[in-house]
Write a structure and sequence with these properties.
Strand order of the largest sheet: 3-2-1-4-5-6-11
Largest sheet: 7 strands, parallel
Number of strands: 13
CATH class of the largest domain: Alpha Beta
Bound molecules: UDP-4-deoxy-4-formamido-beta-L-arabinopyranose
CATH topology of the largest domain: Rossmann fold
Radius of gyration: 19 Å
Strand content: 15-25%
Number of domains: 2
Amino acid sequence: MKILVTGGLGFIGSHTVVELQSKGFEVVIIDDLSNSSEKVIDGIVAITGVKPVFEKFDLKEKTKVQDFFKRHSNIAGVIHFAASKAVGESVEKPLLYYENNIGTLVYMLQELSAMQTANFIFSSSCTVYGQADKMPITESAPVKEAESPYGNTKQMGEEIIRDTCKVVPALNAIALRYFNPMGAHPSTEIGELPIGVPQNLVPFITQTGAGIREQLSVFGGDYPTQDGTCIRDYIHVVDLAKAHVVALERLVSGKNSENYEVFNVGTGTGSSVLEAIQSFERVSGKKLNYKIVDRRAGDITAAYADTTKANTVLGWKAESTLDEAMKSAWDWEQKIRK
Ligand code: WQD
């Protein structure tokens, strides 16, 4: 069964390609390499022994998207990762984000709407909940006004898919709302490759541990949490990748109860920034140089998932602990610095 993975050489995309191939799916990747490298294919081959088909182009080129679907008439499902994801950059360049994330989604859905039957998985985010009123967060929690154009592209993306599914019954879609993905494949063949100074906590921790950054700034020590630092739901990227495969299997086997569904993908456990640092110190045996500084604008106090829906309906559950995920991130960091 042939699956198109857009952004399949990126962080979450590449791990999902591995899980798909391990389950016998045939994978075709489209990636423009804007935030990834063709070398990732070697890592995928090293793990699975299978080389995915790769086409390099930008999904903003609508005629190329149309041409792709003319050449591949037998795509059983699409997992759509390709998007820009830097929150700060999206504030500076909103139109870039709307064009990259919304324009390309529309082109993709236009092609899928013309097919006899189509299955589509969308990368959404817990960012749609903003600061939720109740923890853990269920899928029925209200979607709050987006804090950034990036966050808005995820909210709008969900709405665009939902509206399309209403009028295209042959289109089946699932939006996965990711919490905080981290870690790397245990083989250390693939992992996260942040460009420049990492904005996210875990790569900043591992780079500080590796001596590339001098000190981690912990943004805020006065939040109303048990240790004063923010709480997040850190999920191992391999667990997240597996959630895509089970979501896709639900669609291709026709087991979905509605043609548009939404699932939280997290562990269900909240961890504070200080707990993440302690985890790093445990698995690396190193002391981390960190300092508590002012809060970062736009940060919410806490977000962790109620995963009941994914557990019961998809039959999926995150398996890795924070320490296991942190160890994989640290192993990867050490490998890429060699
Ligand atoms: C985690 C915690 C920081 C860096 C991201 C995306 C968002 C969404 C979820 C996207 C926070 C603290 C961080 C540092 C720190 N998903 N921190 N020092 O903020 O949950 O959001 O993931 O698709 O859009 O931006 O993740 O990793 O940036 O931060 O203290 O140097 O670590 O304040 O509490 P966040 P993060």
